Amino acid sequence: MSTRKKLTVIFLSLIGATWMYAQDGQTVSDQELEKFASAFQQIQLVTQEAQQEMVAAVEQEGLAVQRFSELMQAAQDPAQETEGSEEEIKKFEAAIQVLDKIQAESQQDMQDKIAEEGLSVDRYQAIAALVQNDTQLQQKVQQFMEKE
């Protein structure tokens, strides 16, 4: 798969997983689209860094990422039966505290990146929804991203 196709797949999946739908009838200027593309790229970097920090935090607490994921799924779904030792549960809880902090910091970083581009978070989300539903806007955003 080409780099461009990979970027497009990542771009669309992140937008689809992250942002809400905008109201019908909204439009976006090329200038806003360029700001959006720049902010989006910066947010991708923040997300990647946060993921790396989270993996490191889980491992630093003495849990394998896979085991942490199993414990997390069990914590979120009481019907799932995954038991952990008392020591594992303590490590899991300690990791959760660190992950919450990393998540809050990365969320603030993302908001800062959006603001640095001159967009509000609400406007960024509205543009993301418009882009998600419009292939022409997707192509324009891709072009802006390739320029940088």
Describe, in plain words, how this protein is organized in 3D.
This protein is mostly helical and 148 residues long. It has one domain. The protein contains 6 helices and no strands.
N- and C-termini, Cα separation = 21 Å
- Note the run of SSEs as H and E: HHHHHH
Total beta-strand segments: 0
Q: Helix fraction?
A: over 70%
What's the shape? elongated
Helical/strand content category:
mainly alpha
Beta-strand fraction estimate: under 5%
Any idea how many domains?
A: 1
Ordered list of secondary-structure elements with their pairings:
Elements: H1 3-18, H2 30-60, H3 65-76, H4 86-116, H5 121-132, H6 135-147
What structural keywords apply?
148 residues, mainly alpha, elongated, disordered N terminus
Would you kindly provide a brief summary of this structure?
The chain is 78% helix and 0% strand. The chain has helices spanning 3-18, 30-60, 65-76, 86-116, 121-132, 135-147. The longest helix is centred in the N-terminal third of the chain and has 31 residues, at 30-60.
